[in-house]
Amino acid sequence: MDLPKGLAGVVVDQTEISSTAGGKLVYAGYEIEELAQASYEEIVFLLWHTRLPQKGELAAFSKQLVSEMVLPAESIRLLLYIAKEPQHPMSILRTATSLLGTTNDVIFDEPPKILAKMLTVIASIVRIRQDEPLIEPDFKLGLADNFLYMLTGKKPDEFLSRLFNTVMVLHADHEFNASTFSARVVASTAADYYSCLTAAVCALKGPLHGGANEQVFAMLEEIKGSHLDPITYVKQRLAAGKKVMGFGHRIYKDGDPRAKILQGLARKLAQKTGNESYYDLQVTLADYLLKTKGLHPNVDYYTALIYHCLGLEKDLFTVIFAACRTAGWLAHIMEQKRTGRLIRPSSEYIGPKGRKYAKDHYQIGSEF
Q1: Catalytic center residues
Q2: Does residue 274 lie within any of the structural domains?
Q3: What is the pLDDT averaged over residues 37-60?
Q4: Using the 8-state DSSP alphabet, how is residue 207 labeled?
Q5: Measured distance CA(238)–CA(218) in Å, rounded
Q6: Which of 228, 254, 303, 363 is most exposed by smallest CB count within 10 Å?
Q7: Number of compact structural domains in the chain
Q8: Is residue 110 domain-resident?
């Protein structure tokens, strides 16, 4: 059998939530360019209900989400203990997500409460690791604004609010990517939401998936620190057989539509925060790789700079990605649970055949 590697191009199921067909990212029928200026709550509602909310529905939904952002005291106590451990923040989030399933009502918790709690947990991990006090949500702010406020300790102005909502919208879902498919596999076993989300977090941690944004900024820092010409750096990296992180995509051969939107946001935020040199470096690399290799930036490329401009250390980038993507994970978990069918693919065995076990091969008392 000529099997596609990594299930590339294999349709494993149907979904009403999102699509990447034809190199376009679509949420429930809306192209991502149409939704870039929507609020994060609108997109969460859309992913969960496959329709946009009415004005009254949106206000009630937003109020419900924000009201659930307060963590139980037991969750906070455990976070204060584990978040200071030296492990990578995604390892902390993996444990914290599982802990939410022990300090909350696993049987009766529903997606609005779970999403709100996940955002607060992630903001708390960031604050604890920065030795900053935890911040209570402001019930006058929306979900994304509250998350940014609880991350940074500053209530966002109109520019940052609009920018961060767009960042969260662009990362909210992406069809059957590795972490989403992992969540769906676990959901197909009828496991609880927290178990499904823990599996998704584990998959997102990998540098070939969510962890790529961290690697992008590490590359930018390395170029600036080495004082090498960026083109020379890229040539040397490619000659050594290494990847240039943040470029290329299995699906988007003509460019990631999210990256095109994020580039403009990164430019504006870099100008406002004195990070123009990083942005100029990114443009230099992107122009060179497009002209010489036909490679386009992907969603991780400009997101890395945006997160840096928000004052976040690079090892925290992927947990912010997880915060944005939780809405999509929950949408797919709900959809998978409705199907009621276990995901259990088959494989082609290519190992040895016809072997026989000799019963006297090992004798009692003999040395192995």
Answers
A1: 249, 300
A2: yes
A3: 97
A4: T
A5: 16
A6: 363
A7: 2
A8: yes
